[in-house]
Protein backbone atom coordinates (compact mmCIF):
# COMPACT_ATOMS: atom_id res chain seq x y z
CA UNK A 1 0.00 0.00 0.00
CA UNK A 2 2.86 2.34 0.76
CA UNK A 3 4.03 2.37 -2.86
CA UNK A 4 0.69 2.62 -4.64
CA UNK A 5 0.96 6.30 -5.46
CA UNK A 6 4.43 5.69 -6.88
CA UNK A 7 3.34 2.68 -8.93
CA UNK A 8 1.18 4.61 -11.39
CA UNK A 9 -1.97 3.56 -9.56
CA UNK A 10 -3.15 7.08 -8.77
CA UNK A 11 -6.85 7.89 -8.98
CA UNK A 12 -7.28 10.43 -11.77
CA UNK A 13 -9.72 12.74 -10.03
CA UNK A 14 -10.88 15.90 -11.78
CA UNK A 15 -11.73 19.32 -10.30
CA UNK A 16 -15.40 18.31 -10.00
CA UNK A 17 -14.39 15.30 -7.91
CA UNK A 18 -12.37 17.52 -5.56
CA UNK A 19 -15.28 19.97 -5.27
CA UNK A 20 -17.59 17.09 -4.27
CA UNK A 21 -15.10 15.94 -1.65
CA UNK A 22 -14.66 19.45 -0.27
CA UNK A 23 -18.44 19.87 0.02
CA UNK A 24 -18.69 16.56 1.84
CA UNK A 25 -15.99 17.50 4.36
CA UNK A 26 -17.64 20.87 5.01
CA UNK A 27 -20.95 19.08 5.63
CA UNK A 28 -19.32 16.67 8.09
CA UNK A 29 -17.65 19.50 10.01
CA UNK A 30 -20.90 21.49 9.97
CA UNK A 31 -22.74 18.62 11.64
CA UNK A 32 -20.04 18.53 14.30
CA UNK A 33 -20.42 22.26 14.91
CA UNK A 34 -24.21 22.07 15.18
CA UNK A 35 -24.00 19.08 17.52
CA UNK A 36 -21.63 21.06 19.76
CA UNK A 37 -24.48 23.45 20.58
CA UNK A 38 -26.42 20.56 22.13
CA UNK A 39 -23.59 19.56 24.46
CA UNK A 40 -23.87 20.95 27.98
CA UNK A 41 -22.80 17.97 30.10
CA UNK A 42 -20.52 14.94 29.98
CA UNK A 43 -23.59 12.73 29.44
CA UNK A 44 -24.50 14.80 26.36
CA UNK A 45 -20.96 14.55 24.99
CA UNK A 46 -20.36 10.87 25.74
CA UNK A 47 -23.87 9.34 25.46
CA UNK A 48 -25.97 11.94 23.55
CA UNK A 49 -28.09 12.47 26.66
CA UNK A 50 -30.02 9.26 25.76
CA UNK A 51 -32.32 11.30 23.52
CA UNK A 52 -32.14 9.89 19.96
CA UNK A 53 -34.92 8.08 18.03
CA UNK A 54 -34.59 4.42 17.03
CA UNK A 55 -34.23 5.01 13.29
CA UNK A 56 -31.25 7.33 13.88
CA UNK A 57 -29.49 5.00 16.30
CA UNK A 58 -30.37 1.99 14.10
CA UNK A 59 -28.67 3.46 11.04
CA UNK A 60 -25.76 4.69 13.16
CA UNK A 61 -25.50 1.17 14.62
CA UNK A 62 -24.83 -0.38 11.22
CA UNK A 63 -22.85 2.60 9.90
CA UNK A 64 -20.43 2.47 12.85
CA UNK A 65 -19.48 -0.99 11.58
CA UNK A 66 -19.17 0.15 7.96
CA UNK A 67 -15.52 0.94 8.40
CA UNK A 68 -12.40 -0.89 7.36
CA UNK A 69 -13.87 -4.32 8.12
CA UNK A 70 -16.98 -3.93 6.04
CA UNK A 71 -15.75 -1.99 3.05
CA UNK A 72 -12.07 -2.64 2.33
CA UNK A 73 -11.80 -5.87 4.32
CA UNK A 74 -14.88 -7.54 2.84
CA UNK A 75 -14.07 -6.41 -0.71
CA UNK A 76 -10.55 -7.83 -0.20
CA UNK A 77 -12.18 -11.10 0.83
CA UNK A 78 -14.37 -10.87 -2.27
CA UNK A 79 -11.23 -10.83 -4.43
CA UNK A 80 -9.64 -13.78 -2.64
CA UNK A 81 -12.55 -15.97 -1.51
CA UNK A 82 -15.77 -14.76 -3.17
CA UNK A 83 -19.23 -15.61 -1.82
CA UNK A 84 -18.13 -17.50 1.34
CA UNK A 85 -17.44 -14.01 2.68
CA UNK A 86 -21.22 -13.52 3.14
CA UNK A 87 -20.89 -15.62 6.30
CA UNK A 88 -19.52 -12.53 8.04
CA UNK A 89 -22.97 -11.00 7.58
CA UNK A 90 -25.67 -13.69 7.50
CA UNK A 91 -24.02 -16.04 10.02
CA UNK A 92 -21.51 -13.75 11.70
CA UNK A 93 -23.70 -10.71 12.39
CA UNK A 94 -27.49 -10.97 12.00
CA UNK A 95 -28.25 -13.62 14.70
CA UNK A 96 -26.09 -11.80 17.26
CA UNK A 97 -27.66 -8.42 16.43
CA UNK A 98 -31.11 -9.89 17.03
CA UNK A 99 -29.96 -11.47 20.31
CA UNK A 100 -28.57 -8.12 21.44
CA UNK A 101 -31.88 -6.36 20.77
CA UNK A 102 -34.16 -9.00 22.26
CA UNK A 103 -32.16 -10.30 25.24
CA UNK A 104 -29.24 -8.09 26.23
CA UNK A 105 -30.39 -4.50 25.68
CA UNK A 106 -32.95 -4.70 28.53
CA UNK A 107 -30.03 -5.35 30.89
CA UNK A 108 -27.76 -2.67 29.43
CA UNK A 109 -30.37 0.06 29.08
CA UNK A 110 -32.46 -0.93 32.09
CA UNK A 111 -29.50 -0.84 34.47
CA UNK A 112 -28.70 2.74 33.30
CA UNK A 113 -25.00 1.91 32.97
CA UNK A 114 -22.96 4.29 30.86
CA UNK A 115 -20.80 1.61 29.23
CA UNK A 116 -20.29 -2.14 28.87
CA UNK A 117 -17.32 -2.14 31.31
CA UNK A 118 -19.56 -0.42 33.88
CA UNK A 119 -22.00 -3.33 33.55
CA UNK A 120 -19.02 -5.60 34.27
CA UNK A 121 -18.26 -3.63 37.43
CA UNK A 122 -21.81 -4.01 38.72
CA UNK A 123 -21.87 -7.74 37.96
CA UNK A 124 -18.33 -8.77 38.92
CA UNK A 125 -16.68 -5.89 40.76
CA UNK A 126 -13.67 -3.69 40.10
CA UNK A 127 -11.00 -6.24 39.06
CA UNK A 128 -13.07 -7.55 36.11
CA UNK A 129 -14.13 -3.98 35.34
CA UNK A 130 -10.53 -2.78 35.15
CA UNK A 131 -9.39 -5.71 32.99
CA UNK A 132 -12.30 -5.13 30.60
CA UNK A 133 -11.84 -1.35 30.52
CA UNK A 134 -8.14 -1.53 29.70
CA UNK A 135 -8.50 -4.29 27.10
CA UNK A 136 -11.41 -2.48 25.42
CA UNK A 137 -9.51 0.82 25.30
CA UNK A 138 -6.48 -0.90 23.76
CA UNK A 139 -8.66 -2.65 21.17
CA UNK A 140 -10.33 0.60 20.09
CA UNK A 141 -6.99 2.32 19.53
CA UNK A 142 -5.76 -0.60 17.40
CA UNK A 143 -8.99 -0.77 15.37
CA UNK A 144 -9.11 3.03 14.97
CA UNK A 145 -5.60 2.77 13.54
CA UNK A 146 -6.80 0.26 10.94
CA UNK A 147 -9.61 2.58 9.85
CA UNK A 148 -7.22 5.52 9.81
CA UNK A 149 -4.66 3.64 7.70
CA UNK A 150 -7.25 2.84 5.04
CA UNK A 151 -8.62 6.37 5.14
CA UNK A 152 -5.09 7.68 4.62
CA UNK A 153 -4.45 5.21 1.80
CA UNK A 154 -7.30 6.79 -0.18
CA UNK A 155 -5.78 10.25 0.35
CA UNK A 156 -2.41 8.80 -0.68
CA UNK A 157 -3.84 7.47 -3.96
CA UNK A 158 -5.86 10.59 -4.59
CA UNK A 159 -3.22 13.24 -3.96
CA UNK A 160 0.03 11.30 -3.98
CA UNK A 161 0.98 12.60 -0.54
CA UNK A 162 3.36 10.48 1.57
CA UNK A 163 1.47 8.01 3.71
CA UNK A 164 2.43 9.68 7.00
CA UNK A 165 1.08 13.03 5.78
CA UNK A 166 -2.11 11.37 4.58
CA UNK A 167 -2.57 9.69 7.99
CA UNK A 168 -2.13 12.95 9.92
CA UNK A 169 -4.53 14.89 7.67
CA UNK A 170 -7.17 12.15 7.75
CA UNK A 171 -6.90 11.93 11.55
CA UNK A 172 -7.33 15.70 11.89
CA UNK A 173 -10.62 15.64 9.97
CA UNK A 174 -12.17 12.93 12.16
CA UNK A 175 -10.79 14.54 15.31
CA UNK A 176 -12.37 17.89 14.42
CA UNK A 177 -16.00 16.79 14.37
CA UNK A 178 -15.69 14.16 17.11
CA UNK A 179 -14.10 16.61 19.55
CA UNK A 180 -16.68 19.26 18.69
CA UNK A 181 -19.94 17.38 19.12
CA UNK A 182 -19.06 14.12 20.85
CA UNK A 183 -21.29 11.10 20.36
CA UNK A 184 -24.16 13.08 18.81
CA UNK A 185 -21.85 14.43 16.11
CA UNK A 186 -20.50 10.93 15.49
CA UNK A 187 -23.99 9.39 15.30
CA UNK A 188 -25.55 12.01 13.01
CA UNK A 189 -22.50 11.86 10.77
CA UNK A 190 -22.80 8.07 10.75
CA UNK A 191 -26.37 8.38 9.46
CA UNK A 192 -25.16 10.74 6.72
CA UNK A 193 -22.23 8.45 5.97
CA UNK A 194 -24.49 5.42 5.66
CA UNK A 195 -26.37 7.01 2.77
CA UNK A 196 -23.16 8.32 1.20
CA UNK A 197 -21.65 4.82 1.31
CA UNK A 198 -24.70 3.26 -0.35
CA UNK A 199 -24.88 5.97 -3.02
CA UNK A 200 -21.17 5.48 -3.70
CA UNK A 201 -20.95 1.68 -3.82
CA UNK A 202 -24.27 0.69 -5.42
CA UNK A 203 -23.40 2.31 -8.80
CA UNK A 204 -19.98 0.63 -8.66
CA UNK A 205 -21.67 -2.77 -8.28
CA UNK A 206 -24.09 -2.09 -11.14
CA UNK A 207 -21.42 -0.75 -13.52
CA UNK A 208 -19.16 -3.67 -12.62
CA UNK A 209 -21.84 -6.27 -13.37
CA UNK A 210 -22.54 -4.61 -16.71
CA UNK A 211 -18.80 -4.73 -17.46
CA UNK A 212 -18.58 -8.50 -16.90
CA UNK A 213 -21.84 -9.37 -18.71
CA UNK A 214 -24.23 -9.63 -15.77
CA UNK A 215 -24.33 -12.26 -13.04
CA UNK A 216 -23.75 -15.16 -15.42
CA UNK A 217 -20.79 -13.38 -16.93
CA UNK A 218 -19.32 -12.94 -13.44
CA UNK A 219 -19.91 -16.63 -12.69
CA UNK A 220 -18.09 -17.66 -15.86
CA UNK A 221 -15.12 -15.35 -15.26
CA UNK A 222 -14.75 -16.29 -11.58
CA UNK A 223 -14.95 -20.02 -12.45
CA UNK A 224 -12.02 -19.61 -14.83
CA UNK A 225 -9.94 -17.48 -12.46
CA UNK A 226 -7.51 -18.60 -9.71
CA UNK A 227 -9.61 -20.01 -6.86
CA UNK A 228 -12.24 -21.35 -9.26
CA UNK A 229 -15.85 -22.25 -8.52
CA UNK A 230 -15.30 -22.46 -4.73
CA UNK A 231 -15.74 -18.67 -4.81
CA UNK A 232 -19.34 -19.00 -6.06
CA UNK A 233 -20.93 -20.93 -3.17
CA UNK A 234 -21.09 -19.77 0.43
CA UNK A 235 -20.98 -23.31 1.87
CA UNK A 236 -18.81 -25.09 2.98
CA UNK A 237 -16.34 -22.20 2.69
CA UNK A 238 -13.11 -24.22 2.77
CA UNK A 239 -11.25 -21.51 0.89
CA UNK A 240 -12.23 -18.94 3.55
CA UNK A 241 -11.33 -20.98 6.62
CA UNK A 242 -8.27 -22.71 5.16
CA UNK A 243 -9.17 -25.93 6.99
CA UNK A 244 -9.29 -28.17 3.89
CA UNK A 245 -12.13 -30.24 5.38
CA UNK A 246 -15.82 -29.55 4.76
CA UNK A 247 -17.00 -30.59 8.24
CA UNK A 248 -14.30 -28.61 10.06
CA UNK A 249 -14.94 -25.63 7.82
CA UNK A 250 -18.67 -25.59 8.58
CA UNK A 251 -17.96 -26.12 12.29
CA UNK A 252 -15.46 -23.25 12.28
CA UNK A 253 -17.89 -20.92 10.52
CA UNK A 254 -20.90 -21.80 12.70
CA UNK A 255 -19.15 -22.01 16.09
CA UNK A 256 -16.00 -19.89 15.70
CA UNK A 257 -17.50 -17.12 13.56
CA UNK A 258 -21.27 -17.45 13.99
CA UNK A 259 -21.26 -17.94 17.74
CA UNK A 260 -18.05 -16.88 19.49
CA UNK A 261 -16.69 -14.09 17.27
CA UNK A 262 -20.10 -12.79 16.20
CA UNK A 263 -21.84 -12.76 19.58
CA UNK A 264 -18.62 -11.58 21.20
CA UNK A 265 -18.49 -8.58 18.88
CA UNK A 266 -22.11 -7.55 18.54
CA UNK A 267 -23.33 -8.14 22.10
CA UNK A 268 -20.39 -6.90 24.18
CA UNK A 269 -18.58 -4.40 21.95
CA UNK A 270 -19.34 -0.97 23.38
CA UNK A 271 -18.75 0.67 19.98
CA UNK A 272 -22.07 -0.84 18.87
CA UNK A 273 -23.88 -0.98 22.20
CA UNK A 274 -23.16 2.72 22.75
CA UNK A 275 -25.36 3.60 19.76
CA UNK A 276 -28.31 1.70 21.23
CA UNK A 277 -27.72 3.23 24.67
CA UNK A 278 -28.06 6.70 23.12
CA UNK A 279 -31.72 5.90 22.30
CA UNK A 280 -34.48 7.79 24.07
CA UNK A 281 -36.36 4.76 25.45
CA UNK A 282 -35.99 1.08 26.27
CA UNK A 283 -38.10 0.15 23.24
CA UNK A 284 -35.97 2.29 20.93
CA UNK A 285 -32.80 0.76 22.39
CA UNK A 286 -34.08 -2.77 21.71
CA UNK A 287 -35.12 -1.88 18.16
CA UNK A 288 -31.78 -0.22 17.35
CA UNK A 289 -29.77 -3.36 16.42
CA UNK A 290 -32.84 -4.96 14.81
CA UNK A 291 -33.41 -1.93 12.58
CA UNK A 292 -29.71 -2.03 11.74
CA UNK A 293 -30.04 -5.70 10.73
CA UNK A 294 -32.25 -4.86 7.71
CA UNK A 295 -29.58 -2.92 5.77
CA UNK A 296 -26.88 -5.19 7.21
CA UNK A 297 -28.36 -8.13 5.26
CA UNK A 298 -27.86 -6.29 1.99
CA UNK A 299 -24.39 -4.84 2.53
CA UNK A 300 -22.67 -7.92 0.97
CA UNK A 301 -24.10 -6.97 -2.41
CA UNK A 302 -22.24 -3.63 -2.44
CA UNK A 303 -18.93 -4.72 -0.88
CA UNK A 304 -18.33 -8.41 -1.69
CA UNK A 305 -19.67 -8.44 -5.26
CA UNK A 306 -17.45 -5.48 -6.30
CA UNK A 307 -14.48 -7.35 -4.84
CA UNK A 308 -15.32 -10.40 -6.94
CA UNK A 309 -15.68 -8.18 -10.02
CA UNK A 310 -12.34 -6.50 -9.32
CA UNK A 311 -10.69 -9.92 -9.17
CA UNK A 312 -11.67 -10.66 -12.79
CA UNK A 313 -11.46 -7.22 -14.48
CA UNK A 314 -8.66 -5.23 -12.82
CA UNK A 315 -5.44 -5.86 -14.80
CA UNK A 316 -3.27 -6.15 -11.70
CA UNK A 317 -5.48 -8.91 -10.27
CA UNK A 318 -5.78 -10.71 -13.62
CA UNK A 319 -2.00 -11.00 -13.50
CA UNK A 320 -1.31 -11.40 -9.77
CA UNK A 321 -4.40 -12.90 -8.08
CA UNK A 322 -2.84 -16.37 -7.96
CA UNK A 323 0.19 -14.93 -6.17
CA UNK A 324 -2.02 -13.18 -3.62
CA UNK A 325 -4.00 -16.38 -2.99
CA UNK A 326 -0.74 -18.15 -2.21
CA UNK A 327 0.17 -15.45 0.31
CA UNK A 328 2.86 -13.90 -1.87
CA UNK A 329 3.65 -10.28 -2.74
CA UNK A 330 2.34 -9.07 -6.10
CA UNK A 331 5.00 -7.53 -8.42
CA UNK A 332 2.59 -4.68 -9.15
CA UNK A 333 2.56 -3.68 -5.47
CA UNK A 334 -1.21 -4.21 -5.08
CA UNK A 335 -2.84 -6.13 -2.25
CA UNK A 336 -6.39 -7.43 -1.88
CA UNK A 337 -7.13 -4.31 0.20
CA UNK A 338 -6.91 -2.20 -2.98
CA UNK A 339 -9.88 -3.85 -4.71
CA UNK A 340 -12.45 -1.04 -4.51
CA UNK A 341 -9.92 1.69 -5.27
CA UNK A 342 -8.68 -0.07 -8.40
CA UNK A 343 -12.20 -0.89 -9.56
CA UNK A 344 -13.16 2.77 -9.15
CA UNK A 345 -10.06 3.79 -11.08
CA UNK A 346 -10.97 1.55 -14.02
CA UNK A 347 -14.77 1.85 -14.17
CA UNK A 348 -16.01 5.20 -12.85
CA UNK A 349 -16.01 8.47 -14.79
CA UNK A 350 -15.12 11.81 -13.22
CA UNK A 351 -17.96 13.25 -11.19
CA UNK A 352 -19.12 9.79 -10.14
CA UNK A 353 -15.57 9.03 -9.00
CA UNK A 354 -15.72 11.89 -6.49
CA UNK A 355 -18.92 10.49 -4.98
CA UNK A 356 -17.40 7.02 -4.78
CA UNK A 357 -14.26 8.33 -3.08
CA UNK A 358 -16.46 10.26 -0.63
CA UNK A 359 -18.23 6.99 0.12
CA UNK A 360 -14.96 5.26 0.95
CA UNK A 361 -13.80 8.15 3.11
CA UNK A 362 -17.20 8.16 4.82
CA UNK A 363 -16.88 4.51 5.73
CA UNK A 364 -13.45 4.90 7.31
CA UNK A 365 -14.45 8.09 9.11
CA UNK A 366 -17.55 6.38 10.50
CA UNK A 367 -15.48 3.50 11.78
CA UNK A 368 -12.77 5.66 13.31
CA UNK A 369 -15.24 8.11 14.88
CA UNK A 370 -17.08 5.16 16.46
CA UNK A 371 -13.81 3.90 17.93
CA UNK A 372 -12.91 7.36 19.28
CA UNK A 373 -16.32 8.07 20.81
CA UNK A 374 -16.48 4.72 22.61
CA UNK A 375 -12.86 5.07 23.79
CA UNK A 376 -13.74 8.52 25.20
CA UNK A 377 -16.59 7.16 27.26
CA UNK A 378 -14.75 4.14 28.64
CA UNK A 379 -11.60 6.09 29.48
CA UNK A 380 -13.48 9.00 31.07
CA UNK A 381 -16.07 7.10 33.07
CA UNK A 382 -14.58 3.63 33.60
CA UNK A 383 -10.90 4.40 34.08
CA UNK A 384 -10.37 8.04 35.02
CA UNK A 385 -13.51 8.79 37.04
CA UNK A 386 -13.51 5.37 38.76
CA UNK A 387 -9.84 4.99 39.63
CA UNK A 388 -8.14 8.40 39.33
CA UNK A 389 -10.46 11.41 39.93
CA UNK A 390 -13.77 10.29 41.45
CA UNK A 391 -15.67 13.36 42.61
CA UNK A 392 -14.92 16.18 40.19
CA UNK A 393 -17.65 18.49 38.80
CA UNK A 394 -19.33 17.34 35.58
CA UNK A 395 -17.62 20.08 33.59
CA UNK A 396 -14.28 18.49 34.43
CA UNK A 397 -15.30 15.20 32.79
CA UNK A 398 -16.70 17.04 29.77
CA UNK A 399 -13.34 18.78 29.23
CA UNK A 400 -11.53 15.51 29.84
CA UNK A 401 -13.68 13.77 27.22
CA UNK A 402 -12.69 16.34 24.61
CA UNK A 403 -9.01 16.24 25.61
CA UNK A 404 -8.81 12.47 25.54
CA UNK A 405 -10.20 12.55 21.99
CA UNK A 406 -6.98 14.28 20.94
CA UNK A 407 -4.85 11.75 22.81
CA UNK A 408 -6.75 8.82 21.27
CA UNK A 409 -6.27 10.27 17.80
CA UNK A 410 -2.51 10.58 18.32
CA UNK A 411 -2.35 6.97 19.53
CA UNK A 412 -4.40 5.85 16.51
CA UNK A 413 -1.87 7.50 14.21
CA UNK A 414 0.75 5.21 15.75
CA UNK A 415 -1.34 2.05 15.39
CA UNK A 416 -2.16 2.97 11.78
CA UNK A 417 1.41 2.03 10.90
CA UNK A 418 0.92 -1.36 12.59
CA UNK A 419 -2.14 -1.97 10.41
CA UNK A 420 -0.17 -0.97 7.30
CA UNK A 421 1.84 -4.19 7.58
CA UNK A 422 -1.22 -6.37 6.87
CA UNK A 423 -1.96 -7.39 3.27
CA UNK A 424 -5.57 -8.27 4.21
CA UNK A 425 -6.95 -5.87 6.80
CA UNK A 426 -9.82 -8.23 7.65
CA UNK A 427 -7.38 -10.89 8.88
CA UNK A 428 -5.78 -8.29 11.15
CA UNK A 429 -9.10 -7.14 12.61
CA UNK A 430 -10.52 -10.63 13.08
CA UNK A 431 -7.38 -11.51 15.05
CA UNK A 432 -8.02 -8.52 17.33
CA UNK A 433 -11.65 -9.57 17.82
CA UNK A 434 -10.57 -13.08 18.82
CA UNK A 435 -8.24 -11.55 21.46
CA UNK A 436 -10.66 -9.08 23.00
CA UNK A 437 -14.27 -9.94 22.17
CA UNK A 438 -14.41 -13.74 22.33
CA UNK A 439 -13.40 -14.10 26.01
CA UNK A 440 -15.53 -11.11 27.00
CA UNK A 441 -18.59 -12.77 25.47
CA UNK A 442 -17.92 -15.97 27.44
CA UNK A 443 -17.73 -13.99 30.68
CA UNK A 444 -20.87 -12.02 29.86
CA UNK A 445 -23.04 -14.91 28.75
CA UNK A 446 -22.06 -17.13 31.70
CA UNK A 447 -22.45 -14.32 34.21
CA UNK A 448 -25.81 -13.27 32.84
CA UNK A 449 -27.38 -16.73 32.95
CA UNK A 450 -25.52 -18.35 35.89
CA UNK A 451 -25.97 -16.48 39.15
CA UNK A 452 -23.36 -18.68 40.87
CA UNK A 453 -20.53 -17.09 38.85
CA UNK A 454 -18.33 -15.08 41.20
CA UNK A 455 -16.38 -11.81 40.93
CA UNK A 456 -13.04 -13.67 41.00
CA UNK A 457 -14.21 -15.80 38.07
CA UNK A 458 -15.11 -12.67 36.11
CA UNK A 459 -11.60 -11.23 35.93
CA UNK A 460 -9.62 -14.50 35.88
CA UNK A 461 -11.65 -16.07 33.07
CA UNK A 462 -11.39 -12.91 31.02
CA UNK A 463 -7.62 -12.58 31.48
CA UNK A 464 -6.79 -16.24 30.80
CA UNK A 465 -9.21 -16.42 27.87
CA UNK A 466 -7.49 -13.45 26.23
CA UNK A 467 -4.06 -14.98 26.90
CA UNK A 468 -5.12 -18.28 25.29
CA UNK A 469 -6.25 -16.51 22.10
CA UNK A 470 -2.96 -14.63 21.87
CA UNK A 471 -1.12 -17.94 22.40
CA UNK A 472 -2.97 -19.68 19.55
CA UNK A 473 -2.26 -16.74 17.25
CA UNK A 474 1.44 -16.71 18.23
CA UNK A 475 1.78 -20.45 17.61
CA UNK A 476 0.18 -20.06 14.17
CA UNK A 477 2.56 -17.22 13.30
CA UNK A 478 5.49 -19.41 14.37
CA UNK A 479 4.02 -22.19 12.15
CA UNK A 480 3.76 -24.53 15.14
CA UNK A 481 0.02 -24.78 14.46
CA UNK A 482 -0.79 -25.35 10.75
CA UNK A 483 -3.46 -22.65 10.52
CA UNK A 484 -3.91 -20.33 7.53
CA UNK A 485 -6.33 -17.66 6.31
CA UNK A 486 -9.11 -16.54 8.62
CA UNK A 487 -9.31 -19.95 10.23
CA UNK A 488 -6.65 -18.65 12.64
CA UNK A 489 -9.09 -16.19 14.23
CA UNK A 490 -11.87 -18.83 14.31
CA UNK A 491 -9.67 -21.27 16.26
CA UNK A 492 -8.26 -18.55 18.53
CA UNK A 493 -11.77 -17.28 19.33
CA UNK A 494 -13.08 -20.77 20.04
CA UNK A 495 -10.11 -21.48 22.30
CA UNK A 496 -10.56 -18.22 24.19
CA UNK A 497 -14.26 -18.93 24.71
CA UNK A 498 -13.65 -22.49 25.96
CA UNK A 499 -10.78 -21.49 28.27
CA UNK A 500 -12.80 -18.62 29.71
CA UNK A 501 -15.79 -20.88 30.45
CA UNK A 502 -13.66 -23.62 32.04
CA UNK A 503 -11.68 -21.18 34.20
CA UNK A 504 -14.81 -19.25 35.21
CA UNK A 505 -16.67 -22.39 36.28
CA UNK A 506 -13.69 -23.76 38.21
CA UNK A 507 -12.99 -20.47 40.01
CA UNK A 508 -16.69 -19.91 40.75
CA UNK A 509 -17.00 -23.29 42.44
CA UNK A 510 -13.98 -22.47 44.60
CA UNK A 511 -15.00 -18.92 45.63
CA UNK A 512 -18.00 -17.23 47.24
CA UNK A 513 -20.81 -15.85 45.01
CA UNK A 514 -22.62 -12.59 45.59
CA UNK A 515 -26.01 -12.49 47.30
CA UNK A 516 -29.06 -12.80 45.03
CA UNK A 517 -30.34 -9.38 46.10
CA UNK A 518 -27.20 -7.75 44.65
CA UNK A 519 -27.74 -9.30 41.22
CA UNK A 520 -31.28 -8.17 40.41
CA UNK A 521 -31.22 -6.58 36.95
CA UNK A 522 -27.83 -8.14 36.23
CA UNK A 523 -28.74 -11.85 36.03
CA UNK A 524 -31.56 -13.13 33.86
CA UNK A 525 -33.19 -15.47 36.43
CA UNK A 526 -33.27 -12.76 39.11
CA UNK A 527 -34.68 -9.98 36.95
CA UNK A 528 -38.47 -9.34 36.97
CA UNK A 529 -40.04 -10.52 33.72
CA UNK A 530 -42.04 -7.29 33.34
CA UNK A 531 -38.84 -5.29 32.90
CA UNK A 532 -37.87 -7.50 29.95
CA UNK A 533 -41.14 -7.12 28.06
CA UNK A 534 -41.81 -4.64 25.27
CA UNK A 535 -43.81 -1.59 26.30
CA UNK A 536 -46.35 -1.12 23.50
CA UNK A 537 -47.90 2.09 24.87
CA UNK A 538 -47.52 5.69 23.69
CA UNK A 539 -44.90 6.31 21.01
CA UNK A 540 -43.91 2.63 21.13
CA UNK A 541 -47.33 1.46 19.94
CA UNK A 542 -47.79 -0.26 16.56
CA UNK A 543 -46.87 -3.67 15.21
CA UNK A 544 -43.90 -2.22 13.33
CA UNK A 545 -42.32 -1.20 16.64
CA UNK A 546 -42.43 -4.66 18.23
CA UNK A 547 -38.84 -5.92 18.55
CA UNK A 548 -39.87 -9.60 18.47
CA UNK A 549 -41.85 -9.25 15.24
CA UNK A 550 -39.15 -7.20 13.52
CA UNK A 551 -36.52 -9.74 14.57
CA UNK A 552 -38.66 -12.58 13.18
CA UNK A 553 -38.91 -10.85 9.79
CA UNK A 554 -35.13 -10.35 9.66
CA UNK A 555 -34.48 -13.98 10.62
CA UNK A 556 -36.76 -15.38 7.90
CA UNK A 557 -35.11 -13.23 5.21
CA UNK A 558 -31.63 -14.20 6.44
CA UNK A 559 -32.45 -17.92 6.30
CA UNK A 560 -33.71 -17.42 2.76
CA UNK A 561 -30.48 -15.69 1.71
CA UNK A 562 -28.42 -18.54 3.16
CA UNK A 563 -30.46 -21.05 1.16
CA UNK A 564 -30.27 -19.09 -2.11
CA UNK A 565 -26.52 -18.46 -1.96
Automatic annotation (TrEMBL):
A single GO CC term, please?
Answer: plasma membrane
Q: Which organism is it from?
A: Amycolatopsis panacis
Per the record's keyword annotation, is Oxidoreductase included, yes or no? Answer: no
Regions that span the bilayer = 18-35, 47-68, 88-109, 130-155, 161-180, 192-210, 247-268, 289-314, 352-379, 400-420, 432-450, 457-476, 488-510, 547-564
Per the record, the similarity remark reads: Belongs to the sodium:solute symporter (SSF) (TC 2.A.21) family.
The cross-references to Gene3D superfamilies, in alphabetical order and at most eight, read: Sodium/glucose cotransporter (1.20.1730.10)
Q: What name does the UniProt record give this protein?
A: Na+/galactose cotransporter
| Membrane topology according to the record | Multi-pass membrane protein
Give the domain of life.
Bacteria
Q: Which GO terms describe its molecular function?
A: D-glucose:sodium symporter activity
Q: Any idea where this protein resides?
A: Membrane
Q: Which Pfam families does this UniProt record tie to the protein? A: SSF
User: What's in the keyword line of the UniProt record?
Assistant: Membrane, Transmembrane, Transmembrane helix
InterPro entries per record = Na/Glc_symporter_sf, Na/solute_symporter, Na/solute_symporter_CS
